[in-house]
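Need tokens for this chain, all 159 residues.
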Amino acid sequence: MSEYTPWLKTRTFSVEEEPILGDYFTDYMNREDVRKAFNIPSEVQAWSQCTRAIDYHELDECSMWIYPILKKQTRIMFYSGDTDGAVPTYGTKQWLKMLGWPIEEEWRPWFTNGQVSGYVEKYEGLDFVTVKGVGHMAPQWAREPVQDMILSWIHDETF
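Here are the structure tokens for all 159 residues:
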């Protein structure tokens, strides 16, 4: 949990109750042979997905400043697993509303193999997509729908 949501300061876990997330990537990145292959000196600290050594703080504007700049330069897709507890869909919908961008396509379902895979809403310059039934790691837990979504979006096809 400490690597997954280091900014979550309102909840602390004892060693016994801290969730085990099975972070194989962290284990892999800190293996001696892998560090050697990446030319990482032994005096450099171990790699971690996130760290409590950084004093995370929240800003009201967060990354919202970049979206108006990107809107003029590139297509943007923001996707979210609809059961994500770290970056909830509801919060994303709130900041999208704060952008004030016109809605070009109303909220509608999208499908994979005839099954609802989530919902999409298109704004002027940004497509917001949810992935049904998964959390923060949508590509890990809904591989086929996420792959179809991303490939369709890249090729500017309806999904």
